[in-house]
Records
---
Amino acid sequence: MINLKINGLNVSVDKGTTLLEAAQSIGFPIPTLCHKEGLTPYGACRLCVMEIGEGDRAKLVTSCTYPAEEGLKVRTASRRVLRARRMIIELLLASSPQSKTIQDIAAAHNVKQQRFRQEYEDCILCGLCVRMCKEQMMAGAIGFRGRGQDRSIGTPFDIKSEVCRLCGGCLYVCPVCSLRCTYNQPDKAICGACANLSPPCVEKEPFDDMMCYMEPCVACEIK
């Protein structure tokens, strides 16, 4: 067994367990987008970031790909972590604001604006469809192509795949294709219709970590 601390709690997990699995096993809510049980961890969306270490040596890591280590000290909701997550959510909203999945994540994390150039992409390169097609459907009909800003997902040379069974598995797991919000105006990139109260404790001194993990957080808002 591997012993580590998550938000000050002593946790024992089996070797090979990721930080995401360790945190979820004791009930800490960790947002994910590119992660899905049964598929290989990919670490594309970065929403599951956690802070490991202490002081100047502390760093952010993707918890879905980082293995638990003996004696590791982990923080799942520090001010640094929440700031990074909100920045990532803004970038996702800039890419695909009509995804209800992304809108719900934004609302849950109290993201009310995004400061980047608005796009309306149909793909956020989370890789869920590629892994679903290869690992669950045993087809491998689609994959990543190109690099950088030219990176995309599709069949080799855009030729219709002979191994695709039209099962729809790729559409089933896609966070952009599944449910869509209907508006398309840049000034309404965040609807906030499903907004929850955000935890105020981490935004105020002297707290540098979230004080509770209730969803939605309401106790601190009640006067």
---
Amino acid sequence: MPTPQSPIGSGFGAASTAAEVIRDIDLTGKCAVVTGGYCGIGIETVKAFRSAGARVFVPFRDSVKARAALSEMPDVVLQPMDLLDPASIDRFAEYVLRKTDRVDFLVNNAGVMAPPLMRDERGYESQFSANHLGHFQLTCRLWPALVRSGHARVIALSSLGHRQAGIDFHDPNFKHREYEPWIAYGQSKTANALFAVALDSVGQRSGVRAFSVHPGGIVTDLVRHMSHEQLHAHQVIDKDGKPIIDPENNKKTPQQGAATSIWCATSPQLDGMGGVYCADCDIARALPSDESAELHGVRPRATDPIAAGRLWQLSEQLTGARID
């Protein structure tokens, strides 16, 4: 039976931090993979897993940056991977499968937001490729280890950006329509949420559950393609250029931004559940329409099981990756 898209009253909230969420959780002997785990909310996610005793694998594109960021966590396992490069995804997954027999938590956290039009070597638009297709392939490649966990959870980092656009199944890679960075970003964030819907449906029988997450608005490297003027116009920085922190209105610290990912990955409150979009350390409220102007909650386009099934089939076709 599908998990209702309705809050459960977790006891946590918008201002909760990853450290608070994981405080009473013991992950000794568990294994986590966190993409984008050396900056922003990713590194806070890694810190939380590690503090509870988990072994953590982090793929990287920038070796110098990753090793500097994680220099005080030498037990974190670093290996190269580029979400725009299918061969590197396979190599990273093969490495993880050689080093561990099980993956208990896969947090698909890395992403790009609103860059100029770029394409991977296959011609796929970079946001759809990095934010969704790369993580789809990685999940498929790590599937044997996720199944061996017996109770794995996969977390897909979506965003309230899903309200910008649904999936254009006829032209997901902007081959025939004009490229608009925020529409492409919205499509990729809707894809992240729908991926969790489809993966949870596929994975339940193997003990793998999936959740999508809106972490909140956090000023990290993700905003590198936005100008100072754009950030100020979006009211995420103040007149001095400092991040505005207002958790109840979606403006969070990295520690608060990592909290919902950690809650979805580890909370016993979610045992037996999956396939839902979460925010502020709870299951988000379902909104009545895709045109809703509300800041909180999830729109139907991001939870539609039919669209999720179509996206799954499209993702298999575009990547060649499958779950056996």
